[in-house]
Amino acid sequence: MKIALIRQKYSSHGGAERYLQQLIDGLLQEGHEVHLFANVWQEQKGVIFHQVKMIKGFSFIKALSFAYFVKKALAKERFDLVHSLERTIGQDIYRAGDGCHKEWLKQRRRINPWRLTMFDCINPLHLALLWLEKRLYHYPDTKYIIANSARGKQEIINLYYYPAEKIEVIYNGVDLQRFHPRLRTEYRQKIRRQLGIDDQTFVMLWVGSGFRRKGMKYLLEALDTLWTEGNKSWFLLVAGKDKIKKYQDKIKDKEWRRQVIFPGPQKEVGQYYGAADVYILPSIYEPFANTCLEALACGLPVITSAINGASEILTAQTGSIIDNPVDIRQIADRIKHWQEVERLKTAVSAGRVLAEKYSIQQNVQKTIAVYRKTITNVTPGNHRI
Question: Which CATH architecture does the domain made up of 2-173+360-376 adopt?
Fold first, then answer.
């Protein structure tokens, strides 16, 4: 197949970008011709790259102009299938990896003061994304949707009335070679020594950007609760990109401030999975955090919120679910649950076994199956591109 993939830009710490790179590798190994349409991307062997223009300036202008120019670029050539990971126009398949913007705005209202909620209603970026989202969910212009969780599928049905039979749920895949329990043997002592943490101390890990959406504020408040209750033997490592100083300032007067370490985004994040005991991500909104699969593959139990699609695959042996991500008591209790040494030992093998059900190879095969189904349902001579 001659396949066109769409993603606006490359980010070395972005989960969607890691997913796309793995998908591309899988498609190339299958012998497909892969074209990538993006504004900025890193060079990848075997991929035919098409740079898409984008008007610089305000974020809403970037979003709208990219959608416009990518449609023009696609029209210059015929493809068997166009698969977009962005809110664009002219794709056969859209992977809703970023979830529904409409749902995210709804969840924001839970944590925002009313002034910000009012501003959201007139913010040009939100209006632009909502327009694009509504347009791409118009069937049959977009023939199939790939959702990465059952919850995500239901959101699309509820908010946009897209036909349920045209939405395929394909959970994210993980690189089982790169993320493995052996990282604990290789890096636990090394990274802990660098950070001044002894081998017996309970270490939580957070990976990713978007601290506000992923509930950093409430996690820090939960840590304060633990400390005031006398639970002081822990560290939190935050391997992510955001306004770090803002969160450092929030805890600057706390006795435990030095037990929260912000090493920033890590190219070799596996070292930090190897150093940690548990992975935590109490997101306010999260379609499916691929970092949860990475953690499981490394043998770490996962603490995350019910709104994270990754929570759908967790078992009692592999993690804990936070029903309400703004409930400080619940976050603190979930952390305490995993501070038991024997429970952590059991989680290593259980997490790995669970992750092995979600290999990137399996994800690619399921995605290709949707490609074939889409092409079969396209009337000859009636392809948009």
Answer: 3-Layer(aba) Sandwich (3.40)
